[in-house]
Input
Amino acid sequence: MANHNQVKAKKHLGQHFLEDESIAQDIADSLSLEGYKDVLEIGPGMGVLTKYLLKKNTTTYVIEIDTESVEYLKNNYLNLADRIIEKDFLKYDLNLIFKDKSFAIIGNFPYNISSQILFKTLELRHQIPEFSGMFQKEVAKRICSKEGSKVYGILSVLTQAFYDAEYLFTVPPTVFNPPPKVDSGVLLLKRKADFKLPCDEKLFFRVVKTGFQQRRKTLRNSLKTFNLSDNLKANTIFGQRPEQLSVSQFIELTSLIENDIN
Ligand code: SAH
Output
């Protein structure tokens, strides 16, 4: 661990630098690297995870918003220099790097933009076979949770429609500098072999998001804005609350709605 010229952590960028090398290695090793060659690391900071990625048989790109971190990386990882993108991940058009190629996403993510990182990944799912990294523990658990759980919600259903989600391990605050206030959790998403849904995918996103806006109500109530026929609303599925529906039931529900409104 280099002790000089370190990057000063910036709170507004969610900077908590991981100081445990074996955890960094475990995250890097969680990718199978099967069927793709390129990896994009979001928020490399001082490169604790990057250095393990660079040892692998992949082409690693990093995207980092902080100029000071980018300077540090350029000075300390010479062979990475032309694959450092100094941009905001959320605003950057990834086609500029990858065109239509597949790539994995990895990172010890900035927790303040966790959900947005996941939503952007879901939008690009046709190009992202694997996704691995660290979130706030509660968010990682939520993404992996199943119907009936208190934390099951939009992130769980949308992610698990396209990916198998596995919670790998918990990481305590003590291994970061500065330590975050919460526990962290590492998760792995592997895209399903068949990730094309048998329903209108745009409508699926709308149904899930609208359904969970009022999670204590029955779907009959929360999906009012869809102006569904009385006949359809008599179906028992509409008597359920969103948190009771499995991913495949949400897909079924979307197909029913699709037929009804067309
Ligand atoms: N991976 C490093 C740093 C984690 S902290 C480590 O484990 O030590 C999160 C990192 O994400 C910081 O370096 C921060 O500057 C960066 N970051 C924050 N918002 C970002 C954004 N919108 N796009 C790209 N990087 C971002």
About this structure: The mean pLDDT is 96. Residues 197 and 220 are 23 Å apart (CA to CA). Residues 247-261 form the longest helix (15 residues). The chain has two domains: 4-191, 201-261.
